[in-house]
Amino acid sequence: MLPPDVRVARDAQDLLIECCVEFINLVSSESNDVCNKEDKRTIAPEHVLKALQVLGFGEYIEEVYAAYEQHKYETMQDTQRSVKWNSGAQMTEEEAAAEQQRMFAEARARMNGGVSVPQPEHPETDQRSPQS
C-alpha cells in the first residue's frame, strides 16, 4: 500500500508486524469480553465493532463495517461460484485459463490498493479472441 519508491527497513517491517499482532490480540480480547457480557459463546461481528468503540477506535467502525460487508458479498459470490463449479458443469481448458487469469487480476488489484475488478456474471460466455 506504500508508493513504489518507498523502502521499509526489515526491522521496521518486523515492528509493524508485532504492532498488528498486538492490536489483533487487544481487539480480540475486548471482543471476547463484550461477547461474555452478552452471555454468548461465539464472537460475532457486532462484538468486534463494540470492542473497537470501547477501545477508542470508534472513528474506524464505519470503515471496518464496510470491509465486513464487502467480505460477506465476496464470500457469497465465492460460494455461488463453488456451487456452480461443483454442479457437474465442466469448464473447457480455455475457460479455466480465462477464469484463472481473472482471479489473478482480481488478487493483483486487491494488493494494489483495493481496486475492484469487474467480474462477468458468466465467465464461460466472456470469451475473448486471442490477439495476434
Automatic annotation (TrEMBL):
Keywords per UniProt: Nucleus
InterPro entries associated with the record: CBFA_NFYB_domain, Dr1-like
Q: Where is the composition biased (Basic and acidic residues)?
A: 121-132
Q: Name one Pfam family in it.
A: CBFD_NFYB_HMF
Which residue ranges run through the membrane? none
Q: Where in the cell is it found?
A: Nucleus
A single GO cellular-component term on record: nucleus
CDD domains in the record:
HFD_Dr1 (cd22905)
Q: Where is the Transcription factor CBF/NF-Y/archaeal histone domain?
A: 4-52
The name under which this protein is listed is: Histone-fold
